[in-house]
Amino acid sequence: MIEVPLGITIREVVEGIGGGIKNGRQFKAAQFGGPSGGCIPARLADTPIDYDALAATGAMMGSGGLVVLDDRDCMVDIARFFLRFTQAESCGKCTFCRIGTKRMLEILDRLCEGKGRPRDLEELETLADYVSRASLCGLGQTAPNPVLTTLRYFRHEYEAHLHERRCPSGKCTALIQYRVTDNCIGCTLCAQACPVGAIAFRPYEKHEIDAQLCTKCDMCRQACQDDAIVAEPRPSGSGTS
Fold first, then answer.
1. In which domain, by residue range, is 186 found?
2. Banded pLDDT at 237 (limits 50, 70, 90)
3. Is residue 6, in this structure, part of any structural domain at all?
4. Smallest Cα–Cα separation from 233: which of 163, 172, 157?
5. How many domains does the chain have?
6. What 8-state DSSP symbol labels residue 238?
7. What confidence tier does 24 reach under pLDDT thresholds 50, 70, 90?
8. Final residue before a domain boundary, out of 135, 170, 205
9. 241: pLDDT strictly greater than 50
10. Are the C-beta atoms of 170 and 55 separated by less than 8 Å?
11. What is the mean pLDDT of residues 126-144?
12. Three-state SS for 195?
């Protein structure tokens, strides 16, 4: 754990203390305050880390935790990840927290699966407002923060999931496809790793992935030693698998 003084900027922590983003990736956002915190985009990286400044962005100091996100992270999926935790932690005493967070999570699940409905974003915002204003304890009152901040700063990603059935970051499993690039040398490691036989065993030939058989388990990409397999967003409007 590294202790930093209040007033230091997000950029100073990420780039100075943290050493920047690894492997040449792009800094995308910082999530503050634990599961009930908010996501602050990279364009606000000069925001000082103090109670008032973070609150102005929609985030909060909370436990003081900081999660750094890069361009491979899907903000819809990030919101779902943190909401899933707070929904599971709800004691169930008040309806707004118990049911409201559950309905919000159902919407996020639909979006990440490419099954969004026309009014999902409006309903998500309405539910978040109700839950934050009417819940009885701090958990329920702050649970919508990850959703509200990602909607505020990364609405285009929500709209891509909803209207185009596409995950711009290539993160949501139902909305991505795997492809073998020209880096492939035909070593067959991916074919050996594939648990469903979606890659034919053809030594010294460029491999191909059968999209109908592929379960998107990611084992082929992890096994490849030549970075010849990539997970990428499906073309806009293509059906879900």
1. 173-233
2. low
3. yes
4. 172
5. 2
6. P
7. confident
8. 170
9. no
10. no
11. 95
12. coil
User: Would the pLDDT of 48 be above 50?
Assistant: yes
User: Is there a single domain that holds both residue 67 and residue 177?
Assistant: no
> Quick one: tokens of 128?
């978040």
Q: What would the two tokens of residue 86 be?
A: 């707070």
Which of 60-69, 200-209, 223-232 is predicted with the least confidence, judged by mean pLDDT? 60-69
Cβ proximity of 186 and 205 under 8 Å: yes
Give the C-alpha separation, 40 to 59, whole Å.
7
DSSP E strand stretches across 55-145: 66-70
pLDDT at 1 over 70: no
The domain spanning residue 183 has which CATH number?
3.30.70.20
Question: Which amino acid, one-letter code, is at 166?
Answer: R
- Is position 99 within any domain? yes
Phi, psi of 14 (to 5 degrees): -65, -50
d(CA 8, CA 17): 11
The C-alpha atoms of residue 37 and residue 34 are separated, in whole angstroms, by: 5
* SS3 of residue 231 by DSSP: strand
Summarised one tens digit per residue, pLDDT across range 163-204 is 999 999 989 999 999 999 999 999 999 999 999 999 999 999
Q: Are 157 and 69 in contact (CB under 8 A)?
A: no
Instruction: Assess whether 49 and 136 both reside in one domain.
Output: yes
